[in-house]
Amino acid sequence: MLPSRQSMVELQLRARGIADARVLTAMARVPRELFVPPELRDRAYDDAALPIGEGQTISQPYMVARICEELDLAGDECVLDVGTGSGYQAAVLAELAGVVHSIERIAALADRACAALAAAGYRDRVHVHVGDGTRGLPEQAPFAGIAVAAAAREVPEALYDQLEPGGRLVVPVGGRREQLLEVVVRTPEGPEVAGTVPCRFVPLVGGEASNGG
């Protein structure tokens, strides 16, 4: 039997320690099959990242849930999603926040993400921008949370600077072989790393990126 949305939530998320009820509900609501290429829709709820073209992937469901849980959103925040990709993570964030801005450097992916978001009912809840995600969206800042779906060698300073006080930046940090998902909180004393977990993401690309092998 192929994995379903509900089995994904129970076996891939809840069983692995995702405990935030709002995150579990959001993951159960978003139709992941609309965010993968048609030829891969029978694998939409696999416990894996899947290719979406342009050398990019839609993240493993567990990692999307973990990122969203670490943002610790209440429901009325303005958040930034860096690396729109398929648009799936932005859709999950739309279930958890008040306003979602998502930025993608590859125009073709941004166009496909917009179509998928519209098909899934998120046209008016997610604002997709084409641009350099490493620079963020200063004109929309500050953000209560920033989620980054690609790995940098170090925490991008421009993104940290766009957090509101107490805001959380969740970003994979490391090279191609070894990465940690870091939770960075903006405090009066400066960045505070609140937690890490091993992960695997494509490299973050852009003018403010510091990445490598």
List unreliable stretches of 5+ residues.
none
Could you say which structural class the secondary elements and strand pairing correspond to?
alpha/beta
CA-CA gap between termini: 38 Å
Q: Roughly what fraction of the amino acids lie in strands?
A: 25-35%
SS field, number of helical segments = 6
Q: How many β-strand runs?
A: 9
Q: Would you kindly provide a written description of the structure presented here, covering whatever features stand out?
A:
The protein has 213 residues and is of the alpha/beta class. The protein has helices spanning 5-13, 21-29, 61-71, 88-94, 107-119, 157-161; strands spanning 50-53, 56-58, 78-82, 99-104, 126-130, 143-148, 163-174, 179-187, 190-199. The strands form two sheets. It has a seven-stranded mixed sheet with strand order 5-4-3-6-7-8-9. α1 (5-13) runs antiparallel to α2 (21-29). The protein is globular, with a radius of gyration of 16 Å. The model has no long low-confidence stretch (mean pLDDT 93).
Summarize the topology:
Elements: H1 5-13, H2 21-29, E1 50-53, E2 56-58, H3 61-71, E3 78-82, H4 88-94, E4 99-104, H5 107-119, E5 126-130, E6 143-148, H6 157-161, E7 163-174, E8 179-187, E9 190-199
Parallel strand pairs: 3-4, 3-6, 4-5, 6-7
Antiparallel strand pairs: 1-2, 7-8, 8-9
Helix pairs in contact: 1-2
Summarize the structure in short:
By secondary structure, this protein is α/β, with parallel strands linked by helices.
Provide the descriptors you would attach to this structure in a database record.
213 residues; alpha/beta; Rossmann fold; 6 helices; 9 strands; globular
